[in-house]
Amino acid sequence: MISNTPLIFEESQPGRQGTPIPRPDVPGPELTDILDSTFLRTEPAELPQVTEPEVVRHFVNLSVKNHHIDKDFYPLGSCTMKYNPKINDALASLPEFAKLHPLQSDDTVQGALRLMWELERMLGKITGMAGVTLQPSAGAQGEFTGALIMRRYHDQTSGHNRQFILIPETAHGTNPASVVSAGFKPKVVKSNTRGKVDLDDLKAKADGETAGMMLTQPNTLGLFENDIEAISSIVHAAGGLMYMDGANLNALVGLTRPADMGFDITHINLHKTFSTPHGGGGPGAGPIGVTEELKPFLPVPIIRRTEGGNFIRDYDNPQSIGNVHSFFGNFGVLVRAWGYIRMLGENGVRRMTRSAIINANYLKTKLAPAYNIPFVEGTMHEFVISGTRQKERGVRVLDIAKTLLDFGFHAPTIYFPLNVSESMMIEPTETESQQTLDKFAEAMLEIDKMIDSDPERIHSAPLNTPVRRLDETLANRKPNLRWRP
Ligand SMILES: Cc1ncc(COP(=O)(O)O)c(C=O)c1O
Known about the structure:
Blueprint: H1 31-34, H2 52-65, H3 86-93, H4 95-98, H5 110-127, E1 131-133, H6 139-156, E2 164-168, H7 174-181, E3 185-189, H8 199-205, E4 210-216, H9 228-237, E5 241-245, E6 265-267, H10 270-273, E7 288-290, E8 302-305, E9 311-314, H11 331-367, E10 383-386, H12 388-392, H13 397-406, E11 413-414, E12 423-426, H14 434-453, H15 455-460, H16 472-477
Bound molecules: pyridoxal-5'-phosphate.
Pyridoxal-5'-phosphate binds at residues 78-79, 138-140, 172, 174, 216, 220, 245, 247-248, 269, 279-281, 284, 286.
């Protein structure tokens, strides 16, 4: 069943409009003074004609049809849908930030440059890295930038033959994609029975053709790779660099630092750890940090503070890989992350990390009576359960995910990671109360009971959402995205 809310175009009635703004009675430039007339419309645009309240109601009603973090719990593992404090939006909307133009000269944007410079330093302190760039606009672009830096480093140290980047089999899909985009080949390293890097397999694969390793810490099963020092030593001994996929930094901030674990490069998904809207490839922010040795290769411009105390965008970095982003179109995201870190302070970010870890372990324990827990040891900020016991009774995790929507929750990530059958990846984040976690756990346990008492209800879920169960294959193959009058 498709929701019958009309499109705003269908609500249109000729002559309706919002508040009319009188034309200015002082002379100003005409459009033709600014744009060549060949670029101007000759007919008015076909915009819907509706009143202001109609517009407001239309979009408010649409906004509650979808699930979002302001509506209820959103435990999407690996995606970190933590609550974004509204004060961050207020900061980013300050006209002094929001109305800047990227071509303004440095002396007119000192506050913005200072904010970026400070954010780089905060992230350097959190990761232990000597240099940070804010350029990449997503985690995946950070991976790509890091891989380009690896290439540049090896080219300068006669490592032209180093074409492989080692990637554990639990890796996020963006890892191999970024590695290939940067001209390397991924080589998969097996996991052991504890869900962590298999050291013997790593030793067999790290060799003179290894450019480095891209490792998520904690890994995508939510497990801390506690052999990390040994892993780093093996890769370094083979001449490779260690890249940390820092998407899960939410589990480490204030407790340990990537540089101390032997990583040479790391990215930071600001939108995951520092509570800015999730980018999904942009407009997020995936800054990267590097060790002293790799600093010369960072993208330009670098934000520098001159001896006189001014802030400048410095393009003069002859060994740089270039730039990976034109201007700083994601500046609003940087303001939000700066605000989040400043607001929490050093102790606050540590408490953030601890709460995220405690919440995940609490929920994991609550679900254990009904669901298989493939890796029993303590988890970090997220964890994986398996629906194999439910599958034996005729229900797949897809059905469980759809039923959760009727309980008013967003479903966790399902069927990822790939090395756990019927996997459900759950990340509660630090921003949820014990009551919310309890409500979610009760829903999960009730769904498990419904498998025996009312399986049909589960197979037909969701019943309470504006759109029922979709034929996802058809929706992908024949998407119907265009409005036709
Ligand atoms: C482990 C991991 N690596 C990489 C990424 C990619 O980050 P982005 O979505 O910012 O490109 C994610 C995204 O959630 C992730 O969870």
